[in-house]
Amino acid sequence: MAKFTKYFIKENESPFWAFAIHDGQQIDEQIKPFYNLNEQERLREEDPFTALMAELPINQFVVSSSRFQLDLNRIVNDSVYLKPEQAWGLTVFRNDLPETIINDLYLDHKNIYEEIEELIERTIATYGFFVVYDIHSYNAKRSGPDEVVDVNKNPQINLGTAYIDPKWNSLVNNLITYIQKEKLYSEDIDIQENIKFKGGNLSQTLNKKYGEYGCVISIEFRKDFMDEWTGLPDIHKIVSCKELLLNTLPILKKYFDYDSR
Fold first, then answer.
1. Residue 19: enclosing H or E segment and its boundaries?
2. Is the pTM of this model over 0.85?
3. How far is the C-alpha of 145 from the C-alpha of 141, rounded, in Å?
4. What is the mean pLDDT of residues 167-181?
5. Which helix (H) or strand (E) holds 109?
6. 204-231 b/e with 16+ CB inside 10 Å = b?
7. Structural domains of the chain sorted by starting position, each given as residue range(s) with its CATH number in brackets
8. What's phi and psi for 173, nearest 5 deg?
9. Extended strands (E) in 51-202
C-alpha cells in the first residue's frame, strides 16, 4: 500500500498491459509545503495525456501522482529528485523536506514495484506470456517554443528496446514494420529505436526478471500532440496516438496466437 503515491489499476482479462507512469500531475497535500516548483514547471517534464493513450482494451496501470513527487521509472535512490542534476537542473524541493517523507516515498517505490511484479506474475500464470506498453512522451524543443525540431535526432516515435531479451526481436520488428506502414497526424511515421531513450527502470527491471515470458516496450511519442511549453493539447492528435496503439494490438495477438474471445 502506497502512502503518498496515487495510481489505479484496471484489469481487462488480457495478457497485455498499458502503463502510463508519468502521466500524473498530483502532489500530496503533505508534500506541497516543501515544494519549490510551480505546476507549469512540473508539467514541462511530465507526460500529460499518456493516460488517455493508455485507455486501451487491455490491462492498464496509470499513475496520477507527479513524477516530481516520486519517479517510478528511476531506481529507488534516484526516484525522489533531491538534487538539480536529477531533475533537468531544477531545484524541486526546499532543503527542509523531512527525512520521514523521503523514506515513505522510497517505501512507496518498493511497494508499488512489488505490486507490479505480482500483476505480471499473475498474468504469466494465467496466459503464459505478457507484453507491456510503457507509454511516455518527450520534449523536442529544449531551447524554446520556436525551436525548429531536429527530426534526425528526435524521431516521432522512439521505441526503448535496449533491455528486451533478444528472443522478442521478431515481435518488436513486426510492430515497427506495421507502424511504418501507417500514418500519424496524416503523415508518414518516423519510428526509431533507442535514439532518445532506451527504457527506464520499469523496463529494465521487468525485462530482466520476466524476459523469458514477455517484454516491456517503452513507447515515447514526441510531444507533437501538444504545445510542450504551454501544455495546450491537440485532442485530435492525442486520439491519433491512441488509435495507433489500439491498431497494433492485433499484431500482439497474432504473434502469440492469442484469441481473446
1. strand 16-20
2. yes
3. 6
4. 98
5. helix 99-127
6. bbbbeebbebbbbbbbbbbbbbbebbeb
7. 7-255 (3.40.630.40)
8. -65, -35
9. 59-63, 130-138, 157-160, 183-184, 187-188, 191-193
